[in-house]
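Quick note —
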Amino acid sequence: MDVVNDRDADWFRGIYGRHYPDVVRYGLRRLGGTAAAEELAQEVFLVAWRRRWEVPARTLPWLYGVGRRLLANHWRAERATPPALELREVPSADRHDGVTRLVDVRAALARLSDDDQEILRLVGWEQLSVSEAALVLGCGAATAKVRLHRARRRLTDLLREQPAPAPVRIGGSR
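Predicted structure written out below.
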C-alpha cells in the first residue's frame, strides 16, 4: 500500500492523539491563553489534514513549523509584534529563589529577538533536537546550531546584567 492510501482518517486520528497536547503547549507558550492555544492547534491540524500527503515521518517538528507559520501570518496581518510573555504577578521577596530566577529568565528572554526566542523555545521548552528545530525553522542543522549557540550566549549575557536579589530578612530582628 502506498503512502497516499495510508493517510486516511485513522492515520490522522493517530497523529492528532499523539501530538495535540504538544501543539497546544506550543501555543500556550506563545499566546495569551488556553483558548487561543487550542485554536492554533486546531488550525495546525486542519493544515495537517489538508496536506496529509506532505507530512513527513518526523511529524511533530513539521507541526511546530506549521504553527510557527500560522502565528507569523497572524501577527503580520495584525501588523503587530508577537505578544511578550506577560508576568501577571511579581513574586514577593519571601518566595522561593527559583520563582525569582524564572521571572529573570522570562524577562531576559523577552528582550531577545524573535528568532533568538524561537530557537531557545524550540530546544528548551518543546525539547526538540537541534536538527528537529532546524526543520521547524526551515534551515540546516548547522545553521540552527549556530543560532542556538548565539541565542544562548545573548541570553546568558542578559541574565548576567540582572542585579543580584537583595538578601531577605526573616523575623523581627532590627
